[in-house]
Amino acid sequence: MKNISLLILSSILFIGCKTKQIQEQQVVSQEIKQEVKTEEPKEVMLIGQHLKSDLQQEPYASWFTPEEASYVANQETLFSLRNLNQDYTITIFMGTWCDDSKQQVPRFYKILDAIDFDLSKVKLITVDRSKTTPEKFENGLNITNVPTFIFYKDGKELHRIVETPVESLEKDMFKIVTGQPYKHTYEN
């Protein structure tokens, strides 16, 4: 009975960040069981609307800073993005508990910095494991996986990158803001 409870708990904890193969889920479940047995302190989550600078503070800086520093974007694509009209806004939904968010969000900010994008046009929303916020920022936006990067122009959604890019963040972003055909990872 204890093993069943632990399996259910571990399944609930990992829903939504990324669907893994069955073998990987079994390994993750075993790791969670070990964490539960050792009763390590719970992770501190940011929830609500925040700024990039909040992710640059501990305990988040321990993953944000190295990931941002190590990402090498395609320079040709960055050059093309830099020369585009940046008349759009971006909303990012992420979880500080989610491995994909910990990887993709710092990389995304590095791209924005490289193209001199006005960060006042970026809204960063951090969600809990059920992908919600007390303020209900997620309402009506169909946030099923994190991170989700939503691009808007004149208040209308252009498109979104969901969880992981199809090609790379900068190439997917270029397709979206130039109106090229694009389907995110979960789009049919």
Automatic annotation (TrEMBL):
Signal peptide start and end residues: none
InterPro entries: Thioredoxin-like_sf, Thioredoxin_domain
Coiled-coil spans in chain: none
Domain Thioredoxin: 86-169
PROSITE patterns named in the record: PROKAR_LIPOPROTEIN (PS51257)
Gene3D superfamilies membership: Glutaredoxin
SUPFAM superfamilies according to UniProt: Thioredoxin-like
Protein name per its UniProtKB record: Thioredoxin domain-containing protein
Organism name: Flavobacterium hankyongi
